[in-house]
Amino acid sequence: MEEVNALPQPWIDHYTKLRFMLHDPVTRWVYSNTGSIRWSAIDFDDPMRVLDQAQTFGLRYGAAVSYFDGNADGHRSFGHFARPDREFTDDEIAALSTYIKNLHHAKAPPTNLTAAELEVLAMVRDGQRLKQIAHDLGVTEGAVKQRLKNAKSKLGAQTSAQAAAMVKQFGLI
């Protein structure tokens, strides 16, 4: 759902131009494993010499982290990390693993929204006003407001429109 890329722009351009993602042993590792690994320990073939070429851009040492919590949608989070000076320490890799795990959970679709909250959010997404929503559902405006308040709280959203956009992005409405 989100990509954060702080690698050097010349490397990104080179990587993209040569379509390395299809051949990158680090990417293959994160899609077929969970946990963490140093680039130097990855034993996949690298016929395009992706890792050798990364070194010419200062990406000499790296680590990869892949996290999957067994969710039904198959959503996986991963990160590739690189540095020019030395291997990542075990403590650094543990911190990167925690970062990826926390990011995964922060971006995961919520599972605690009620059908009534989702119904109201769908109506907000469609541009309906509170009075119309209440009328259509046969409930009071106060009930609609409470459903929106609960949904915003569960999603960490500031506004009803933001909450509706979030659940739409998650594919819940």
From TrEMBL:
Record has DNA-binding as a keyword: yes
Gene: sdiA
GO-annotated biological processes: regulation of DNA-templated transcription
Annotated organism of origin: Pseudooctadecabacter jejudonensis
Entries under Gene3D superfamilies matching the protein: Transcription factor LuxR-like, autoinducer-binding domain, Winged helix-like DNA-binding domain superfamily/Winged helix DNA-binding domain
Keyword Phosphoprotein attached: no
InterPro entries assigned: Sig_transdc_resp-reg_C-effctor, TF_LuxR_autoind-bd_dom, TF_LuxR_autoind-bd_dom_sf, Tscrpt_reg_LuxR_C, WH-like_DNA-bd_sf
Protein name per its UniProtKB record: Regulatory protein SdiA
The HTH luxR-type domain, residue ranges: 106-171
One GO molecular-function entry: DNA binding
Keywords, alphabetical: DNA-binding, Transcription, Transcription regulation
